[in-house]
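R.M. (postdoc): so does anyone remember the format we settled on? I'll just put the structure tokens first.
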């Protein structure tokens, strides 16, 4: 999604707790490059609101009345005009682990803990708008480890990795371990631009929308095991 740099990012907040929305809105509206343009108290209201309004990024709670964040994520993305789908960040706590991967598979670009620091919230919004997925900081990776169960060896579909070269498998392994492009470059002694090329090829060959889906594949194929660092 490309927009004029003169226009602030349009943010939608979806959460059934008014105080949570108010807190996020205060943080977001304090920034020159973003503004809250829509709010909804549940998934059904969000789907209706976003049907008539174009936004850049949605902060979506998971557990809400009428329609939860997982179903709402899928509905919002399905109804968006081609090329204008918003990026969606799922808001969660460690108590709601079981919902996160389902939300990612529904199309969310990442997830953020509700008690994240304001700078992490703002950074996540800018990150997903650039087209990257939010899988850092390390707390997010630990959350992935808890919600992505590594199948037993006989149940792992490692054929998904067949299209990857040896170097691309190395890159996917490091993505699964939570490394940034810069950290991958340092680990493999290659330029960051080269890493970006490898990451793009990995995503394309896996049919993964973004890094979060790549991480899930890395876990589910056994390429990365929980606790690996």
């Amino acid at each position: 999604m490309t927009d004029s740099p003169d226009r602030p990012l349009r943010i939608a907040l979806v959460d059934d707790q008014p105080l949570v929305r108010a807190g996020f809105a205060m943080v977001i509206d304090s920034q020159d490059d973003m503004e809250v343009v829509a709010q909804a108290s549940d998934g059904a209201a969000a789907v209706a609101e976003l049907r008539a309004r174009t936004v850049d990024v949605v902060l979506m709670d998971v557990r809400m009345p009428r329609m939860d964040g997982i179903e709402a994520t899928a509905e919002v993305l399905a109804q968006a005009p081609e090329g204008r789908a918003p990026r969606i960040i799922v808001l969660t706590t460690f108590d709601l682990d079981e919902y996160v991967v389902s939300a990612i598979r529904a199309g969310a670009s990442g997830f953020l803990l509700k008690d994240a620091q304001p700078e992490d919230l703002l950074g996540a919004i800018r990150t997903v708008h650039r087209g990257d997925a939010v899988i850092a900081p390390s707390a997010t990776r630990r959350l992935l480890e808890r919600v992505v169960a590594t199948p037993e060896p006989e149940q792992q579909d490692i054929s998904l990795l067949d299209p990857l070269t040896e170097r691309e498998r190395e890159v996917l392994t490091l993505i699964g371990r939570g490394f940034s492009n810069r950290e991958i470059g340092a680990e493999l002694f290659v330029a960051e631009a080269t890493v970006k090329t490898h990451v793009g090829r990995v995503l394309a060959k896996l049919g993964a929308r973004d890094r979060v889906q790549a991480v899930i594949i890395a876990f589910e194929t056994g390429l990365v095991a929980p606790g690996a660092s």
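R.M.: ...and that's the designed sequence above, right after the tokens. Also worth knowing: The chain has ten helices and five strands. The radius of gyration is 18 Å.
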